[in-house]
Each structure stands twice: as structure tokens, then as C-alpha cells.
Specification:
Blueprint (H helix, E strand, L loop, with lengths): L2 H16 L7 E9 L5 E2 L1 H12 L2 E12 L2 E11 L5 E13 L2 E8 L2 H9 L2
Amino acid sequence: MNTTTLETIKGYYDSIRRKSGWQAFVSEDIEFGGTGVKTTKGKDAFIEGNNQFLRAVKTSQVKEMIVEGEKACVIMHYELLSPKGNRASSDVAEILAVKDGKINSSTIFFDTEAFNSFMAQG
């Protein structure tokens, strides 16, 4: 197991949980994609998209993590809270790659129908 990858992934998700400092774990040329999301490239676009999602996140927790070499698969559990006070839960599978101690690719998979319904509630 690559310790640098494990430390990077743990640091990133710990920072996501705290909603502070996660940006430091992302490379300048990160590629991002997955189900129901716009494919983007670059740190600024990734940060913008992640910030939009994190506004709805009340709490987050790593459920499972597999790290092999420079790649990781993480199952995250998010408790969501809308501006109107509606609540929902979402489990998200994230496939990540780390290079030089930074996340340089992220692909996510989640129930887009349930998430879009939640977001439509406002």
C-alpha cells in the first residue's frame, strides 16, 4: 500500500468532514467526472463544483476505503440539509487517483434521481 496515497485520501476526507482545508489535497490539473455531474478539468472548476455540493452537506463519514498503489475507492455517507430544512442521506462511491501527494482524478457514482429530487425541494 502506498502510504502517501493513504495519507492524502484520509487528509482529504477528514478536511471534507470539517469543511475546511480540503482544497490543499487537490492537484492543479484534477480531472473530475461521474454520474450526473459535468466533467471538468482543473482545480478551480473542481473546487467550485465541490463547494456547491458541500453547502448541502450537514455531516459526512467514510464508510469504506480501499487503497491500492496510487488509486483509492471510497464509499462516503452524506447527510444533506437543504436551505428549506429538508433532509436526505446519500451514499457516494468515489474512485480517486493520487500523484505526487495530490488527488489528480476523481470519479463519483451516486443515486442521481434521489439527489436531484432532494435539490428540487429547495
